[in-house]
Amino acid sequence: MFCTDIYEPRVSDYTQTGRLSFEAMLQIIENTANHHMIAAHDKLVNGDIAWVLADWRVVIKECPTEGQKLHVRTWTRAKARAAAIPRDFLVTGDDGREFFRANARFALLDMKTKRLVRITEELLEAYGPESEQIFDDEAPRLKAPEEFDFVGPLVLRRSDMDYNGHVHNTRYITFAEEALPAEEYRENDFSSFRIVCASSVEAGSHPEIRRTALANGWLFTIYADGHVCTLIQLLK
């Protein structure tokens, strides 16, 4: 079952250069995924069990600019891993040209025990899984580097938190952008990004962000209380 939304970006969704921000991209496709959940009558998710993001992969073909209406399509794929469900996204314009595409893996988490909940075939079938796959290849595994050219604290705001008491998954990309060198932040000519969440950054923790230069971009590692929580990769 394909689920499609039409979204008209707001002024606050754009950067100073008039391009749709990376965080807005994630918010838009995440909202479409939520509408798919409602259409699937997913009643499993409640106060004790919630969908949490394990991995984002976004590839940008053309960055939408102000005034462009977005057609957002999402679907789950035919087979899920034991504790995560793959979901694909395609975002196009009124004329059908592609703006960006994305893949994500969502897992079910028991909020009391902090343990993953197995996704049943019954739940997967409720979403009407499709065989179409948005990427031809699997994204390379990200690994925390041993060397960094910048280390700085992350000051968490109340507005950074979601209803689970964790940093909202769309905020990590903004944390990374804020930690870019000034010139790189102004140019912002990245064509893809990844977010891999090993564990959540929770309220009350003391996180820091570490930056490592790559041949064609940057890798950011977020540590909280001494362990790796999140990896964010920005590529040109």
Outline:
The protein has 236 residues and is of the alpha+beta class.
Indicate the low-confidence ranges by residue numbers: none
Q: What is the CATH-assigned architecture of the largest domain?
A: Roll
C-alpha Rg (nearest Å) = 18 Å
Count of DSSP strands: 11
Report the end-to-end length measured between terminal Cα atoms: 33 Å
Which overall shape is indicated by the principal axes computed on the Cα atoms?
Answer: globular
Tell me the name of the CATH class of the largest domain. Alpha Beta
CATH topology of the largest domain: Thiol Ester Dehydrase, Chain A
The main sheet comes to: 11 strands, antiparallel
- Annotation field: number of helices: 4
**What is the structural class?**
alpha+beta
The portion of residues assigned to helices is 10-25%
Tell me, rounded to a whole number, the average pLDDT. 88
Report on the structure:
This protein is of the alpha+beta class and 236 residues long. It has two domains: 3-126, Thiol Ester Dehydrase, Chain A, CATH 3.10.129; 150-235, Roll (Thiol Ester Dehydrase, Chain A). It has four helices and eleven strands; from the N terminus they run βαβββββαβααββββ. The protein has helices at 22-39, 121-126, 171-178, 182-187; strands at residues 3-7, 49-60, 70-76, 84-92, 98-110, 115-117, 150-153, 192-197, 207-214, 217-224, 227-235. Strands 1, 2, 3, 4, 5, 6, 7, 8, 9, 10 and 11 form an eleven-stranded antiparallel beta sheet that branches. The protein starts with a strand and ends with a strand. 34% of the residues are buried.
